[in-house]
Amino acid sequence: MAADLSQIVKAYDVRGVVPDQWDETLAELFGAAFARVTGATAVVTGHDMRPSSPALSGAFARGAAAQGVDVTEIGLCSTDQLYYASGALNLPGAMFTASHNPARYNGIKLCRAGAAPVGQDTGLTEIRELVERWSESGAPEPAAGGPGTITRRDTLDDYAAHLRSLVDLTSVRPLKVVVDAGNGMGGHTVPTVFAGLPLTLVPMYFELDGTFPNHEANPLDPANLVDLQKRVREEGADLGLAFDGDADRCFVVDERGEPVSPSAITALVASRELARNGGKGTIIHNLITSWSVPEVVRENGGTPARTRVGHSFIKAEMARSGAIFGGEHSAHYYFRDFWNADTGMLAALHVLAALGGQQGTLSALVAQYDRYSGSGEINSTVDDQVARLAAIRAAYEGREGITLDELDGLTVTSADWWFNVRPSNTEPLLRLNAEARDEATMTKIRDEALALIRSS
């Protein structure tokens, strides 16, 4: 019987519980299907620290090699290190990780040569169909010319050197930085990337442990920042950094232990990337980032471009527009000079360079980039996403001074506030983000929107 992959092949990646939903047998078929769909003669693979990752990655390599493809295994790495390898070696890549998901999960993030994304519309659907077919009929025929080779290659030093070539760190003053790696891949990459910089590094949870014994490696959840916030205050540190499990996202905490909005980080990095590019360039931001972002971009000579939420949309728009940088409120940061791929590590280096290049505190530095009051993302379980969105539209449509747009869900905007409500693709949820010029207005608008979303 054919495997049902509908539960594990998502819009942008493969992800599910091991071995209940997928295992090494299916991983081998994914390797063969990836080889067929990309038509590649060589691919690169990497994996995170989860207990199941080495075996799944190895099975994928065998499946690809059986199709005549040469496989370069870079072993333990962060997701952005795999993107680096895909870009620098100009090879399609496969990263074995389930990012911030619990220990029993694993997954694959796939890309074409040059770190170009693979999603449902760009090859993932065809890969899924092949794996389903082969799981019923048996493994595909091996390549007529014989199997490809499987070789090991260490890319950590080259990855670190590339990142540091993209940020001027020469004038950084001595800083004390606490880094919470959450037992994820930041514990592997941070020591090499930060080596030689004038930093006093206070490491937290750097031991690679895919069972996540200290807290979930998901800094988007405020509960997982508590340890870092406390340690920053105890150490009298200049800042704190928190990475997610596969270390492609970075969250920043200021010297008071207060989280810095990812929108403020987007605005800060945008201003620096524009300066590096002569005050010209397009900057991508998704529609739930703060009003601060397009304002700062325009003030620094750039052109802001608003997109839907999600890395495939941002990467596609980066490629289409030639944008120099893009940021999401989920703390994904995309760089043209990093093959349009996301790297939280490069964003972290920008923050260190900006803070270390002047004498003030981080809270004072980012205040100019954090101008409004935001709600953060609030999820509500609903029976009927479409009906709830229609009710919100009806409540605001025709009101004077209010505009509506449906780029991604429904965005309602006035002169002093905006909110966006968008449906989850995978759960019966509506996600609300609201922002206003002051806290009282934001609270009022947030509560108005929530009442409409949650009314039965």
TrEMBL record:
Residues 377-450 form the Alpha-D-phosphohexomutase C-terminal domain. Keywords: Isomerase, Magnesium, Metal-binding, Phosphoprotein. Residues 7-135, 157-257, 264-372 form the Alpha-D-phosphohexomutase alpha/beta/alpha domain. One of its GO terms (biological process) is carbohydrate metabolic process. Its cofactor is Mg(2+). GO terms for molecular function: intramolecular phosphotransferase activity; metal ion binding. CDD domains: PMM_PGM. It comes from the Bacteria. Belongs to the phosphohexose mutase family. NCBIfam families: PRK09542.1. This is Phosphomannomutase. The lineage of its organism: Bacteria, Bacillati, Actinomycetota, Actinomycetes, Kitasatosporales.
